[in-house]
């Protein structure tokens, strides 16, 4: 993970020099030779300690990568912590022993004593354990923050989904348009306004009564569609009509509640409708393919509402829980086809 501290470029470049100086000071203190501190930035040994720190840190970093690769299934296990710590300690002993012996033999031209070797290995051995401690603390903190971010993301998506569902259930745009029409009707024709209120109440009664219901019948959905068409026909001068080619046996066919009303209203909102271009919606069943098909002649507006895509996505997501077949929209031969999978209830 590039976000971890040990993989940070600045950490890899700047930490070893400071740590090498600390190691050198510690060795001076162990050897009771504090008087050499004044020569720290000119002494050859301090640069050797810095070089050993670079070598150790990069070796331990490589060891962590190899451990992550071989123990991927145990990334959060105690066994990985133990294996990585022990392998890091062994590697530090091997690398430091080899490097410091080579330094004494080839640079200083005499062999390192056992005491000196033990001091270097002890200090850098503890350093390897501290390095792994730093890694695991940073790793688990990163994992914890990542889990929190994932939980926040899930909560945000859930809230967004619930708000979207609430908006679709309430359908504020239909309510706003209906109230505007109703205000006009009240001043024009009280009896017609009363009839309009009845249809509006039936639309919202259906929405509220089926919000917690998994499936509704096709007959109920068509009735809800007819009520919506009745309401919107006041805006489009009665130029919207619905033609169904369904047999009585299809009346109780299960449908996800709100599917047809939502799709029909979406088509109406995105289509140019006037006395020269009335909208005829046709609903039929393709038995062979297993689809309920809603079709209309294409005459789309230049700017289509974003709600149209949202409604289609919601329907598609809802049907993914009940059927392996997707909800399909096809535009061909100057016609728009929306194909909804036929659901089968298995008892």
From TrEMBL:
<dbReference type="Pfam" id="PF06580">
    <property type="entry name" value="His_kinase"/>
</dbReference>
<dbReference type="GO" id="GO:0016301">
    <property type="term" value="F:kinase activity"/>
</dbReference>
<feature type="transmembrane region" description="Helical">
    <location>
        <begin position="42"/>
        <end position="60"/>
    </location>
</feature>
<keyword id="KW-0808">Transferase</keyword>
<dbReference type="InterPro" id="IPR050640">
    <property type="entry name" value="Bact_2-comp_sensor_kinase"/>
</dbReference>
<feature type="transmembrane region" description="Helical">
    <location>
        <begin position="118"/>
        <end position="141"/>
    </location>
</feature>
<keyword id="KW-1133">Transmembrane helix</keyword>
<keyword id="KW-0812">Transmembrane</keyword>
<feature type="transmembrane region" description="Helical">
    <location>
        <begin position="81"/>
        <end position="106"/>
    </location>
</feature>
<keyword id="KW-0418">Kinase</keyword>
<feature type="transmembrane region" description="Helical">
    <location>
        <begin position="9"/>
        <end position="30"/>
    </location>
</feature>
<keyword id="KW-0472">Membrane</keyword>
<feature type="domain" description="Signal transduction histidine kinase internal region">
    <location>
        <begin position="162"/>
        <end position="239"/>
    </location>
</feature>
<dbReference type="InterPro" id="IPR010559">
    <property type="entry name" value="Sig_transdc_His_kin_internal"/>
</dbReference>
<protein>
    <submittedName>
        <fullName>Histidine kinase</fullName>
    </submittedName>
</protein>
